[in-house]
Amino acid sequence: MSLQGVAAVRVIRTVPRSPWATAWWQYARNPLRLLAASVALLIVGASILAPLLAPTRYDVANIEESLQSPSSRHWLGTDAIGRDVLSRLLYGGRTSLEVSLAVVALALVIGVPLGMAAGFGGGWLDYAVVRLVEVSTALPALLLAMLLISVLGSGIGNTILALAVVAWIEPCRLMRAQTLALRNREFVEAAWALGASTGQIIRRHILPNTVGPLIVVVTLTIPRMIFAEASLSFLGLGINDPLPSWGKMVSESVSYMQVYPVLGIAPTIMIALMVLTLTLVGDGLRDALDPSRGQRGGGWR
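RE: above sequence
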């Protein structure tokens, strides 16, 4: 048989049937995003296990060992009052994660119910929420957080509160849009016809269908809050001593950068890695959880 007579064999890719399995299959096809997720998990794990991995506690100071270069005793050297830089770097990661996760949790508590109420209620309530979102969006987020901290005072609790005030906008806007898109769908109208209450429709139909977009928003908000907390701490408006913070470590290293550059380079690299990897993870999840991309090719996008 000639080559022209040979039938072409189509290779059919087997895609998992579960939506979450399909999303993972789409995400795992991109090696860059897998690497980003691995690096992010490594940093998060090291930060969580800081009490076990750190050579000393973050507040242990020995003035006789101040401003030492990296050595076998202090892998990243010591700061101006003799505190181990590696230990403060690990504990600083815990601080950044605590602040960012707390801010995201508060943003969801505020934004999700407000967005659903606007989408379901309509009328004057929707108008008021949309105007509030527009006004909040017009204000510079970091400057507003700085103003609130100036009034409330610095500290981890006030930092979380100030950042939450500017972080609720995205969840609110997302939930309003999702609610407006879902409330007129056939399955929601069928639930109304069967006598389901508003609470039952929200629990059984609205919230389950918004989990994917909410996960994406959370994943993209966390690196922004890490960077915002580092910026506030760099300006002296965030975390108070002796609690370490990557931004505060960069601020404290400014006077010694020409002689001991590792004091500023190490926390700067950690901030950059954490923000970059989590942003790549969020972008990957956004593509993987988007049903319209399910039939598209993967690879290096």
